[in-house]
Design brief:
Elements (H helix, E strand, L loop, with lengths): L1 E5 L4 H12 L3 E6 L11 E2 L8 H5 L4 E4 L13 H20 L4 E7 L38 H19 L4 E7 L1 E2 L4 H7 L15 E3 L1 H14 L3 E5 L3 E2 L1 E2 L4 H8 L19 H7 L9 E2 L5
Parallel strand pairs: 1-2, 1-4, 2-3, 4-5, 5-6, 6-9, 7-8, 11-12
Antiparallel strand pairs: 8-10
Length: about 290
């Protein structure tokens, strides 16, 4: 299998690329920024230029598409994130259709579903997410809200879904990732600060994913995709000291309807479809947040 990986120099992309090369995939890696320390060959390309995509993709049968601006603050003015990501996704998916690729894995975001304010920051008061139900899974409807990054991901998902409807042989998967923890233990420790009643992490229902699990699920999506289009949400929710997932939902997420059990391995996330279809379950134990004294 010859696979094109866009965004290969990014935090997730470099780990996915190394994994696939190590297990024997024929990888074409590309990014908009050159780096010398990756340990693999990188081809620099601007994916907002549609003509740059075809030479990269020619001869490939699969695509892992990570090559987007990574958040709502990645460009100024912020609407450039929507404009550039939409152009990138349109050109990349169109080239994949024209060249007859067999498999496409698109890396989307939980922000395609939260209905969140894209101007939200750690220092602003928490605004409730507009997630439609708990537990969370890949079947949640798209609802990016006023969030240029989330909108770009939602539009990308829709483009890929339409593409798969047009070509019934295409194996297309969207993975809506939550925040992916870095591998640095000190950085992880900083994300485990005590839980407070108006904790900003509730905006995404305490969801996260380790880097190792992100790499494993992307590889599983590539290898085990079946014909058609599917969306998955590979994530787990942090636990809170002294509270069950059901109690977290009742006490801190009461505005979100509960439509199923919250006692699975993903906590507030239902990962059963990922286990059934891709053989993936989270490998590391769920981290527990201490509760703040105040």
């Amino acid at each position: 299998m010859r696979v094109l990986i866009t965004g290969a120099a990014g935090r997730i992309g470099r780990n996915v690329t190394r994994e696939l090369i190590e297990v024997g995939f024929d990888v074409v890696a590309t990014d908009a920024v050159y780096r010398r320390d990756l340990g693999f060959s990188l081809r620099v390309a601007d994916l907002t230029d549609r003509l740059s995509i075809y030479p990269l993709m020619e001869g490939c049968d699969s695509l892992i598409h990570l090559g987007n601006l990574p958040n709502s603050q990645a460009a100024q003015p912020a609407q450039r994130v929507l404009v550039e990501n939409t152009a990138i996704n349109t050109y990349t998916f169109a080239a994949a259709a024209e060249l007859g690729l067999e498999r496409v894995v698109f890396i989307s975001s939980i922000q395609a579903t939260t209905g969140a304010d894209g101007t939200q920051s750690y220092w602003k008061p928490l605004t409730p997410s507009r997630l439609s139900r708990l537990p969370l899974d890949g079947d949640l409807p798209r609802n990016p809200g006023f969030n240029y990054y989330g909108q770009s991901k939602a539009f990308g998902e829709q483009m890929l879904e339409i593409m798969a409807q047009h070509d019934e042989s295409l194996r297309a998967i969207t993975l809506r990732l939550p925040y992916v923890w870095p591998t640095d233990p000190e950085m992880i420790r900083r994300h485990l600060h005590p839980f407070r009643p108006h904790d900003h992490r509730l905006q995404e229902c305490l969801c996260h994913l380790t880097m190792a699990d992100a790499v494993h699920v992307i590889r599983a999506a590539l290898e085990k995709a079946s014909p058609g289009y599917r969306t998955y949400f590979p994530a787990v929710s942090l636990s809170v000291e002294g509270l069950t997932p059901t109690q977290i939902a009742e006490q801190h997420l009461a505005h979100i309807p509960v439509r199923g059990p919250l006692d699975g391995p993903g906590g507030l996330v239902d990962v059963s479809a990922l286990e059934r279809d891709l053989g993936w379950t989270p490998t590391l134990p769920v981290a527990t947040l201490p509760r703040a004294d105040d």
